[in-house]
Amino acid sequence: MDAAVTEDEDIERIAHTVRTIAMVGLSPNEARPAWGVARYLQSQGYRVIPVNPGHAGKSILGEVVYADLTQIPTEAGVQMVDIFRRSEAVPQIVDEALASLPALKVIWTQLGVTSESAAQKARAQGLTVIQDRCPKIEFPRFL
């Protein structure tokens, strides 16, 4: 099967099944792309949990900000981690996610962000990995 078709099937499944997303690198600055993506996802019924050490304990879009993924309570049920950070930060973020988020199903990296080693590690743990894509662009095709 064509890799693009398989990825589209994954994206469609994610758009319909994921409800809680931890967004690493979400900023309170409304001009930043991450803020617009988080706001869109919230408007579609997703819960977006902000992860940004510089704003930990504050609130972004009505949700408490956590310093890192390990600080998010297990009860939050994070199913997807959306990464708005540089590619070199992805392996550590994926390691944190695998170690601390038991409901995790998806690792998603934003446009221009990739880490093949982190993707392989996540896939080896049974996760779906989408790289170099934006859910604000991809989800509307399936919702």
TrEMBL record:
Annotated ranges, domain CoA-binding: 14-113
Domain of life: Bacteria
InterPro entries found in the cross-reference section: CoA-bd, NAD(P)-bd_dom_sf
A family per Pfam: CoA_binding_2
SMART domains, alphabetized: CoA_binding (SM00881)
Gene3D superfamilies in the cross-refs: NAD(P)-binding Rossmann-like Domain
Protein name: CoA-binding domain-containing protein
